[in-house]
Inverse folding.
C-alpha cells in the first residue's frame, strides 16, 4: 500500500472512532433518561394506586360552592 492510502485509511478509522464515541454517549444519555422516566412512572403509579385505594386519607371532597353561586 502506498503512504497516501495508509493515511486515508487512518483518517477514516479516526473519523469512525469519533463517530462511535459520539453515538455511545447518545446511547448512554438515553439510557439514563429511560431509567429516570421509568422511576417517575413507577412513582406516579404508586401515587395513583394510593389515591384510588379505599383507605386513602388524601381524598378530600370539596363541597364548597364557587364564589359566583
Amino acid at each position: 500500500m502506498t503512504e497516501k492510502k495508509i493515511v486515508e485509511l487512518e483518517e477514516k478509522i479516526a473519523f469512525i472512532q469519533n463517530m462511535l464515541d459520539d453515538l455511545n454517549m447518545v446511547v448512554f444519555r438515553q439510557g439514563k433518561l429511560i431509567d429516570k422516566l421509568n422511576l417517575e412512572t413507577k412513582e406516579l403509579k404508586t401515587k395513583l394506586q394510593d389515591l384510588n385505594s379505599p383507605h386513602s386519607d388524601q381524598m378530600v371532597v370539596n363541597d364548597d360552592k364557587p364564589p359566583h353561586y
About this structure: The first helix runs from residue 3 to 52. The two ends are 90 Å apart (CA to CA).
